[in-house]
Amino acid sequence: MTDEYREFDRSGAGGTGYEESPVDPGQLPSDGDIETSLRPKSLDDFIGQPRVREQLQLVLRGAKLRGGTPDHILLSGPPGLGKTSMAMIIAGELGTALRLTSGPALERAGDLAAMLSNLSEGDVLFIDEIHRIARPAEEMLYLAMEDFRVDVVVGKGPGATSIPLEVAPFTLVGATTRSGALTGPLRDRFGFTAHMDFYEPAELQQILARSARILGIDLRDDASAEIAGRSRGTPRIANRLLRRVRDYAEVRADGVVTLAIARSALEVYDVDPVGLDRLDRAVLGALVRSFGGGPVGVSTLAVAVGEEPATVEEVCEPFLVRAGMVARTPRGRVATQAAWLQLGLTPPPDAATGGIEVRAREPQLDMFDD
Ligand SMILES: Nc1ncnc2c1ncn2[C@@H]1O[C@H](COP(=O)(O)OP(=O)(O)OP(=O)(O)O)[C@@H](O)[C@H]1O
Ligand SMILES: [Mg+2]
Asked: How far is the CA of 84 from the centre of ligand 2 (A)?
């Protein structure tokens, strides 16, 4: 299985300096099928997210005890934290089939009706990027989720009739990177919402150790700590950096990934010790040097680094905000003390501390438009 859809479609965002960055949390074409082989296969196999795992275990076991289908489940969180993997695990734990689609693929209600009428009892229907579902399909989904039935409209105009169709009891698993963009009625129909949060470095190290085992890479502990520290709390990035470091180790050395090898490799790929790439540093540099720390609008900032505003906003910013280097204010983006220090500069006395945003759960991009 491959994920053909991505939250941020960068195909139209052809800026000058930005190409594939190894620390992009979205899925890149070069991730290919390797992601599939690295996916955890069961809840026990899944590293990190202890609360989500415990909660899900209860939801799934409870349903099993009662011999019914579990409530509909919403998985929310930033890209690359394991939502798709978790959806597959849910179907696996229930021992049922997983039917897979995505919000953008459900353009017409008929597409969804076809999917729903093909479900067997107990199936898991996974809708990725569910916040991008078209309105007519969303309305059909309400009824299907609540009453396991859909109304299919046949014909047009005054002669149109609506035919009710039964749907086998199923569990909907929706995934979204922007739960704030979901409509209220849709959100309310999920019985359980799991919030996936960024991973701790120790958890990323465990994930790296597991991936190294699967890929047959000799990865030393201090090297995995180094890679984990540059992975932005995101398993997808950790796995990708591991593969880049392996290339380096095999081409320039004997294949063993030591700390020195990891450091040299990550330097070649322009990933700095806290996980910033070239574009992140350019954005910070412009914010601090050209705009005196802000506030400045995201479009202006994007022009300054020769990038599309969407790329700056959706690729760079979430991490810079989470790392406490950039604060979003109603008047624009502001560099915090941490940003000045990161660039080796002395912050002005009135620089923001950025404390509130540091552990922000999920960047709600739409709330902060300038
Ligand atoms: N807890 C985990 N343990 C081990 N590997 C993980 C874990 N979470 C994610 N991964 C790895 O990260 C990769 C990306 O995960 P996944 O595709 O499930 O993320 P996602 O949240 O669905 O991302 P997106 O929002 O872009 O769809 C997977 O291929 C998997 O190898
Ligand atoms: Mg996914």
From this structure: 4
- 289 C-alpha to ligand 1 centroid (Å): 36
Q: How many domains does the chain have?
A: 3
Active-site annotation holds for 177: yes
Instruction: Indicate the residue type of 29.
Output: P
Summarised one tens digit per residue, pLDDT across range 154-177 is: 888 888 888 888 999 999 999 998
Domain around 289:
278-368
89 domain-assigned: yes
Contact (CB, 8 A) for 26 and 128: no
Q: Is 27 in the pocket of ligand 1 (CB under 6 A)?
A: yes
236 catalytic, yes or no?
A: yes
Give the global pTM: 0.84
Is the domain of 57 the same as that of 159? Answer: yes
Helix axes 259-268, 221-229, angle to 10 degrees: 30
Q: ipTM more than 0.90?
A: yes
364, two tokens: 């709600």
Rounded CA gap, 25 and 22, in Å? Answer: 8
Q: Which of 177, 234, 258, 336 is catalytic?
A: 177
39 lines ligand 1 (CB under 6 A): yes
Q: Which atom of ligand 1 is nearest to the CA of 82?
A: 18
Token pair for 266: 């990550």
Residues 45 and 187 in one domain: yes
pLDDT digits (tens, 9 = 90+) for 93-121: 999 999 999 999 998 888 999 999 999 99
Q: Does the active-site annotation cover 171?
A: no
Residues contacting residue 334 through CB under 8 Å, at least 6 positions apart: 287, 293, 294, 295, 326, 327, 328, 352
CATH of the domain at 361: 1.10.10.10
Rg, C-alpha atoms of the chain:
22
How far is CA 308 from its chain centroid?
20
59 is a domain residue: yes
| Cα torsion 7, 46, 195, 231: sign | negative
